[in-house]
Amino acid sequence: MDEAVIYTILGEAGFTRMVSAFYDRIKTDDLIGPMYPPDEMEAAEERLLHFLLFRFGNDPRYQAKRGHPRLRMRHAPFPIGEAEAERWLQLMDEAMDEAKVPESIQLELRSFFTMVAHNMKNQ
């Protein structure tokens, strides 16, 4: 499925709901939560939202603030192994369900998120 189709179906509001639901889970997660300092949580949420809007909707906000995503480099300081990648995916799956992301695009998003999560592993 084309990224533009996903963006058309979900829209900025849908991505915002999904990212918000995801970060609500991060705040209380015992494995991944400690990687996010409480005073950085809001900024991290905004970065993920803008990244997804850039990736799927060609929205310029992420690049205007951060330049090229360079995700692996940006995540290098954090210990990310199989357990962390799988938990990230679990929390994102739960967030998609809570945000009522249509099933017609959940599989495509899950495929993208799986690729990204496993590419971040450095342990």
TrEMBL record:
Keyword entries, A-Z: Heme, Iron, Metal-binding, Transport
Binding site for heme: H118
GO molecular function: heme binding; metal ion binding; oxygen binding; oxygen carrier activity
Gene3D superfamilies reported in the protein's UniProt record: Globins (1.10.490.10)
UniProt keyword tRNA processing, yes or no: no
Matching Pfam families: Bac_globin
Family to which the UniProt record says this protein belongs: Belongs to the truncated hemoglobin family. Group II subfamily.
Protein name stated in the entry: Globin
Organism encoding this protein: Oceaniferula marina
